[in-house]
Amino acid sequence: MGVAVITGAAQGLGRVTAELLARHGFDVVLTDVQPVDPVVGELRAQGLRASGMSGDISSAAFVADLAEWVAGSLGRADILVNNAGISLIQPAEETTLDQWQTVMAVNLQGPFLLCKAFGKQMLAAGAGSIVNVASIAGLGGVIHRAAYNASKHGLIGLTRTLAAEWGGRGVRANAVCPGWIKTEMDAKDMGSGAYTDDDIVNRVPMARFANPEDVAAAILFLASDGGFVNGVTLPVDGGWTGDNSWDSLRLKTRN
Ligand SMILES: NC(=O)c1ccc[n+]([C@@H]2O[C@H](COP(=O)([O-])OP(=O)(O)OC[C@H]3O[C@@H](n4cnc5c(N)ncnc54)[C@H](O)[C@@H]3O)[C@@H](O)[C@H]2O)c1
């Protein structure tokens, strides 16, 4: 199936995506600012092909080392999943320049550097697929998330541009836009008291959070099977972005 590089693969959605891609025959390369060896070890123990390198994706030097290491050890990347990301919940007028720059560095600069480094390998081979993990927060505003939402809107803009620029040379670029997922990121955000389970469940037509597995399945489709799908932003949100109803109306439809 080829080589798939997944960022932010030490936990959460990235970890589940790495395992799903490995189970579908990809040789997976896990990367994260946290150690990835424990997850690589678990995948290998299941007979799956996995390797990894830890580092900060916002660093141009690290991304260059990673791309060189993948080229040297595995030939090239066929798939890149830009999943690593950080959240920030803060009123816009209280968001500091440092906070803004940190969110942009991880959520937008990192994916740009990775698309550039692995995109070159893909363009040279005339084939490849990039999946960027944006958010429904990249499709509309969400209060108290100016930096995060701007970074995800930017990531969607990058995805569409690469799809247009590289599609004719065999390299596709698409984005998934998950709704709220039960991961460590959500636990941390919810721990700050910013929202409750009910806030999310009441807003979603399908009346639940996303599972990492829901989103990983969409990533797998865009990465491997979606041969003529290019430049799309696929919401995986249980109907959230398609629903303009007010909450009490939606709740009347529940059993
Ligand atoms: N959890 C949600 O509700 C939700 C909703 C929509 C979109 N998303 C997006 O999904 C992606 C995965 O989120 P998650 O919920 O699994 O979060 P998570 O916090 O559980 O995992 C994110 C991973 O990214 C890694 N990471 C952070 N900064 C990094 C850096 N500079 N370099 C390399 N790795 C870094 C973290 O160490 C962590 O392992 C993110 O891009 C997030 O914005 C999450």
Describe it for me?
Helix content is 47%, strand content 15%. With 255 residues, the protein is of the alpha/beta class. The protein has a single domain (3-186, 210-241), classed as Rossmann fold. The chain is globular and about 55 Å long. It has helices spanning 12-23, 37-45, 60-74, 97-125, 146-166, 184-191, 197-203, 212-225, 247-252; strands at 3-7, 27-32, 50-54, 79-82, 128-133, 171-178, 233-236. The chain has 9 helices and 7 strands. Helix 1 (12-23) packs across helix 8 (212-225) and helix 4 (97-125) packs parallel to helix 5. The chain has a 7-stranded parallel beta sheet, with helices on both faces. The model has no long low-confidence stretch (mean pLDDT 97).
The main sheet comes to: 7 strands, parallel
Task: Please give the CATH architecture.
Answer: 3-Layer(aba) Sandwich
**Quick one: CATH class?**
Alpha Beta
H/I helix tally? 9
User: How many domains, in number, for the residues?
Assistant: 1
Looking at CATH, the homologous superfamily is: NAD(P)-binding Rossmann-like Domain
Shape: globular
What's the CATH topology label? Rossmann fold
**SSE arrangement, N to C:** EHEHEHEHEHEHHHEH
Strand % is 5-15%
**Quaternary structure classification:** single chain
Strand tally, please?
7
Percent helix, as a range, is: 40-55%
List the ions, cofactors and other small molecules found in this model. Answer: nicotinamide-adenine-dinucleotide
